[in-house]
Write a structure and sequence with these properties.
With about 350 residues, the chain is α/β, with parallel strands linked by helices. Helices cover about 55% and strands about 10% of the residues.
Length: about 350
């Protein structure tokens, strides 16, 4: 066993002993899958420093032959780590080849397989386990409390502490981008000496970055604080990469709108924890979203117009819908300011 499975699907970075010859990561959470890949590569390389890594394309027409060739015994017995991602995409011949390899795995071959979960090609998961493989759960981490729990473990794994306010600020700033969140935690734990890390450290460390500014703009806009939203938008453009501000800001606005509507549509009398689970947000955010909804619930025509405007702004920030319709940075800023002032 090279990793210990934790609640919510987290896998330790430390490699515990020799990994099994077959490892299969099952699920769609990219962060967890990438961690399995790193763990296995580190563990196998520790055992066999000169191992060769071979990636087999699961969707290739000749995947059956490619699997057989990659896993075939060699004259000098060179060790190989064969990676096959998305084994649910294998054709029938590929399935047969992989099953045959797993049933009689050469001593010089290590297999790393990934499967997104679900019923398609599920028998391959069972075959891998039956062949002595290690199955690692990489199910998607849900928004809200599950994300917070995952990040808390990330901090603990680094033998550090972070205040709830600091974690909440990170989630609010980066949304459900777990890769960005784990990277942010890694940077903070590495560079901030204070323990625990608090919200002041988070703001100081990421001050001026587009994601932080995007969600700050979103909160100001849905609070109907138009002047504050414009100020933050212009500040973000000055301090960050102008090419990224548009995309990240529109993404943050859309995320904030979605969460506000989900909370606004919750059943009367529901607790903050129940609403948080249904809306996929942290419990502490529910109060803010309820306040924002109270400011928009009586102005739903304008809200509907903003939904349409957001839908139009998304492709405009990413390069336009048709050839020749892309905007330069100044035009994007103008369109963003028009969008924000529609709350007035």
């Amino acid at each position: 066993m090279f990793g210990a499975l934790l609640p919510k699907g987290e896998v330790f970075v430390q490699c515990l002993g020799v990994p099994k010859r077959i490892t299969i990561a099952v699920g769609s959470e990219t962060v967890l899958i990438d961690r399995v890949k790193v763990n296995l590569t580190v563990a196998v390389t520790k055992e066999v420093p000169d191992i060769t890594r071979i990636v087999v394309d699961s969707s290739h027409d000749e995947v059956s032959a490619n699997i057989s060739q990659a896993c075939a015994p060699t004259l000098f017995g060179e060790d190989v780590l064969v990676v096959i991602e998305g084994i649910d995409n294998l054709n029938d011949d590929g399935v047969d080849s992989l099953k045959a390899v797993m049933a009689d795995l050469p001593e010089n071959v290590w297999l790393l397989l990934t499967h997104p979960g679900g019923v398609k090609r599920k028998p391959l998961i069972d075959a891998a386990v039956k062949a002595g493989g290690e199955k690692i759960d990489c199910k998607e981490i849900k928004r809200g409390p599950d994300t917070t729990a995952f990040l808390t473990k990330e901090v603990t794994r680094r033998k550090r502490k972070m205040t709830p306010d600091a974690l909440n600020l990170l989630v609010e700033s980066f949304g459900q981008d777990l890769s960005a969140l784990t990277n942010a935690i890694g940077q903070l734990c590495s560079d901030v000496e204070a323990d625990p890390i608090d919200a002041t450290h988070v703001r100081a460390y990421f001050e001026g970055t587009a994601p932080i500014s995007g969600y700050a703009i979103s909160d100001a806009l849905w609070d109907k604080k138009t002047a504050e939203a414009i100020k933050l938008l212009r500040q973000s453009t000055l301090e960050s990469d102008p090419g990224r501000v548009g995309v990240t800001t529109v993404t943050a606005l859309a995320s904030g709108l979605r969460s506000m509507i989900l909370v606004g549509g919750s059943a009367p009398g529901s607790s903050d924890n129940d609403v948080a689970r249904q809306a996929g947000v942290p419990p502490w955010k529910v109060k803010t979203l309820r306040r924002q909804w109270s400011r928009w619930s009586g102005d739903q025509r304008k809200l509907a117009a903003l939904v349409v405007a957001l839908a139009d702004a998304d492709p405009a920030m990413k390069g336009g819908i048709t050839i020749g319709s892309s905007l330069d940075p100044e035009q994007k800023l103008y369109e963003l300011e028009k969008l924000v002032t529609r709350t007035h």
